[in-house]
Design a protein that fits this description.
heterodimer, A: mainly beta, B: alpha/beta
């Protein structure tokens, strides 16, 4: 099975992926981890804002909007059958 | 009813978990708003009584985790040791179970057993969820209470329980959310370095040890801990394909917590597969639609704006006539004297200046409460964020900024919808640069006086310059502080809910009372000070005995000549008296500072009452210029004021200071005198610089007659843009990182990770 790793900020609207990695060096990361953005968690890009940024993501049953500067800290894995 | 115990209860929970609703349901009206010591974060305290206890209930700032990202959240960590001596109620939004249990897990790890309020229980069960409370209690060691804080359901049981004398929050027995042994061992070692033991350490000390262990940035790690961290990583790596790196410890701990949470939920609850109902998704699709989202939002804003400021004018008219009636009443029924003057000129005027804002504030906050409680506010912030971010602001800042066009005072109050303190202060700093409706007549008057030929062109120019200044200030401030500010942008989208009348009422009551009590006093004091400056000293030494001359003239035959002479003398006396008052003396004293801008002392003096209300600038000027001509514009031209200095003066008047009411609310809302004084200096400096540049550029333009005003505008724009660019380069240079848009190099989308040398 082919798996592709992309940056969360590039995850297309409506598609689901699994969090693979999070940038450990950014001070923002601690908060993202605390909010449940840990490796292995499924995440869905719900909607991009009319002006292109931020984007709402659905994770662990709730929705949260992240700017590109935050979502860029996260790498996700897209499984082909998820698309 | 003797022997009642006193207990401090602390409400702790995620933002949007219904903490404040629970607070309202439990305390009712018995509350007071204060500040946390040392920080300017609002503290909400109330009381409740049960059969056995008197409870003092404190609403802690909402936080997702004990690791603070903002000053508000630091309060939670600082209070935790105090809180365990009383009682901690952990408000958990059960409709959002996993993430809310993260904070609970952190508490349990530290040996705290909070009383858990499983809030929003109704929507949880409606969506098909169920929970075995008995199992939950046994597994976690806590006491859960299903509640619906919005309606108050279930809160009575909770209050009864926390009033029980035998209740305690501290318990070190293991539960299924406790730390695994590997982590406990490492934390013990870290504590030993500080001569502490896990068993006897306070929750804050335990937490400190854990935080030290998982520090993200390698340079922040204490050298003695390096070995402990490496051992921990090694132990965690056992039986895994990829060894755990020490930089990943934070990630490991968070993952481990979520694994514990997941297994707890799996063992005692059935969580509905889909938390968000279909109709909400559909509504969201429309409200945040690519093309529909913005127009819908614009329409709502127009409605809010119109009702606040146009409909609000009706009750404002009543208040104005009330004030007028009151001062007339005093004028008629009191003896002439200083006290009457103080009552009318200082106090009644000042109080009128306070209550006049109440209709605006109430209407605006009625809509804000509805938008906030229904969950639409987050969507509005979501669609506006990109635009607001371009001037360094949060998406939520749009509503306060746009309200600033109506009046700055409710706009500053509206900044409370921004949770992040830095963002809130930045918005507060920028709001006074939004031209409010009260400044419009002043502008019309000034432009009409100085430029009777084409006032609208000049007004447009002034607006344009003002807008540029606003963008410039927003950009620079957010850039200057971006390096110190590391709280992430996280915009939670709460589910849509029907607002309850009680929460709307609480919001309105709190805002109006708070405004009158806190800001009202400042505004009143300011009004009285300005009044004192303008009427004292009572007796001004006059250069000429007007009184006897006037009596002599009056006793003469009333010819045209004598009447004219009387009028002239009265006028001259008035001017001389005005010049002798403290206000004029102060104006003359600071005049040398204003001289480079081309202002005469008269203009400088007129700026002082402008502090109270900008329209006084014009009225003071017309009194001061009376000896030259009845027409202010003519008089000013006669004394050598050129159109250029007139324009500069208008610009200065527009920018130099927000009115005292705005300053009062800024002071009270920011809770910081320092911030208020600093922002005052910033406005003044900006007004001065912009005016000075305009004066110089204008002088150059005047010598080359081919250039028209709009070309001057272009030059100013270019100068500002160049200034901004230079400043930015400067900041980037000194802060040592090349790219400002991302928090670290590995997150930068445009650069390869290899060529990153900076932060």
């Amino acid at each position: 099975m082919v798996r592709t790793t992309v940056n969360l900020s590039e995850l297309p609207e409506g598609s689901t992926a699994t969090i693979r990695d999070i940038d450990a060096l950014s001070p923002t990361s601690q908060r993202l981890l605390d909010m449940g953005f840990v490796p292995g968690t499924p995440i869905r890009a719900v909607k991009r804002a009319p002006m292109g940024d931020p984007t709402t993501f659905e994770i662990r049953g709730y929705q949260v909007g992240l700017r590109r500067s935050e979502s860029a800290l996260i790498d996700v894995e897209i499984k082909p059958d998820d698309k | 009813m003797t022997n009642k115990i006193q207990r401090n209860v602390f409400l702790l929970g995620n933002p949007n978990s219904g903490k404040t609703s629970l607070f309202n349901a439990v305390t009712g009206e018995r509350r007071r708003v204060g500040n946390w010591p040392g920080v300017t974060v609002q503290k909400l305290e109330g009381t409740a009584k049960t059969e056995t206890a008197n409870l003092t209930i404190c609403d802690l700032p909402g936080t997702y985790s004990l690791t603070p990202a903002t000053p508000e959240e630091e309060v939670v960590l600082k209070t935790i040791d105090e809180a365990v001596t009383g009682c901690i109620v952990n408000v958990v939004d059960i409709a959002n179970f996993e993430r809310n249990l993260f904070l609970t897990t952190q508490l349990i790890e530290l040996g705290i057993r909070p009383v858990v309020s499983l809030n929003c229980f109704d929507s949880f069960t409606r969506a098909g969820g169920s929970i075995d409370l008995q199992k939950f209690s046994t597994f976690t060691g806590t006491t859960p209470f299903p509640t619906v804080a919005r309606t108050g359901e279930g809160t009575q049981n909770l209050v009864e329980f926390i009033g029980k004398p035998e209740l305690t929050c501290i318990d070190d027995s293991t539960s299924c959310l406790s730390l695994p042994q590997v982590w406990l061992d490492a934390a013990e070692e870290a504590l030993n370095l500080k001569n502490l033991k896990w068993i006897s350490a306070t929750p804050a000390q335990r937490y400190g040890a854990l935080v030290d262990l998982i520090k993200l940035q390698p340079e922040q790690v204490v050298p003695e801990l390096i070995e402990i961290r490496q051992n921990l990583a090694k132990k965690l790596s056992e039986g895994r394909d990829n060894p755990v790196k020490t930089t990943n410890l934070a990630c490991e701990l968070a993952s481990d917590r979520y694994r514990r949470i997941e297994s707890l939920i799996a063992s005692c609850a059935i969580v509905p597969g889909k938390n968000i109902p279909a109709w909400q998704e559909k509504l969201d699709r429309v409200l945040t639609h690519r093309f529909l989202g913005l127009p819908v939002f614009a329409m709502m804003m127009a409605w809010v704006f119109w009702t606040t400021f146009s409909v609000g004018e009706i009750p404002m008219g009543w208040m104005e006539s009330l004030v007028e009636w009151l001062s007339d009443f005093v004028q008629v029924n009191m003896q002439e004297g200083l006290i009457r003057e103080l009552l009318v000129g200082g106090i009644i005027n000042g109080v009128g200046g306070v209550i006049i804002f109440i209709p605006n504030i109430l209407i605006l906050f009625f809509w804000i409460a509805l938008l906030e409680d229904s969950g639409y506010m987050s969507r509005a912030a979501f669609i506006m964020d990109r635009m607001m971010n371009s001037i360094g602001l949060h998406g939520r800042a749009f509503i306060p900024m746009i309200m600033g066009l109506g009046c700055n005072v409710p706009a500053v109050l509206a900044t409370r919808i921004i949770d992040n303190r830095f963002q809130r202060l930045l918005t507060m700093l920028l709001i006074p640069l939004v031209t409010c409706a009260a400044r419009l007549p002043v502008l019309v008057l000034l432009c009409g006086t100085f430029f009777p030929e084409n006032p609208s062109t000049w007004m447009f120019t002034l607006f344009f310059v003002n807008l540029l200044v606003l963008i410039f200030l927003g950009q620079t401030t957010s850039m200057l502080f971006r390096t110190t500010e590391n709280s992430p942008f996280l915009l939670e989208m709460p589910p849509y809910r029907l607002p309850t009348p009680s929460s709307v009422f609480h919001m309105l009551y709190e805002k109006a009372a708070h405004f009158i009590e806190k800001a009202g006093t400042v505004i009143l004091a300011g009004a009285i000070i300005i009044w004192v400056l303008s009427v004292f000293p009572r007796e001004v030494p006059l250069s000429f005995d007007y009184e006897s001359e006037l009596t002599r003239l009056r006793s003469n035959e009333a010819t045209v000549e004598t009447t004219e002479k009387i009028a002239m003398l009265t006028r001259q006396r008035e001017i001389e008296q005005m010049e002798g008052r403290y206000m004029a003396r102060l104006g003359k004293f600071i005049h040398p500072v204003m001289e480079p801008l081309g202002f005469s002392w008269r203009e400088t003096v007129s700026l002082i009452p402008g502090f109270l209300a900008k329209e006084s600038v014009v009225s003071t000027l017309s009194v001061l210029y009376l000896p030259y001509s009845d027409n202010l514009g003519d008089a000013m031209r006669k004394t050598g004021m050129t159109p250029l200095t007139a324009f500069v003066f208008m610009m200065f008047t527009l920018l130099y200071i927000p009115c005292i009411a705005t300053l009062g609310v800024i002071w009270r809302e920011s809770g910081s005198m320092r911030f208020t004084v600093l922002s005052l200096l910033v406005y003044f400096a900006i007004a001065y610089i912009v005016s000075y540049v305009t004066l110089k550029v204008g002088a150059i333009l005047q010598t080359s007659p081919n250039l028209a005003w709009f070309e001057g505008l272009v030059i100013i724009t270019v100068a500002l843009a160049a200034g901004w660019y230079l400043l930015r380069t400067f900041i980037v240079t000194i802060s040592g990182s090349r790219c400002k848009s991302c928090s670290s190099c590995s997150s930068c989308p445009s650069r390869g990770k290899s060529d990153c040398s900076g932060g």
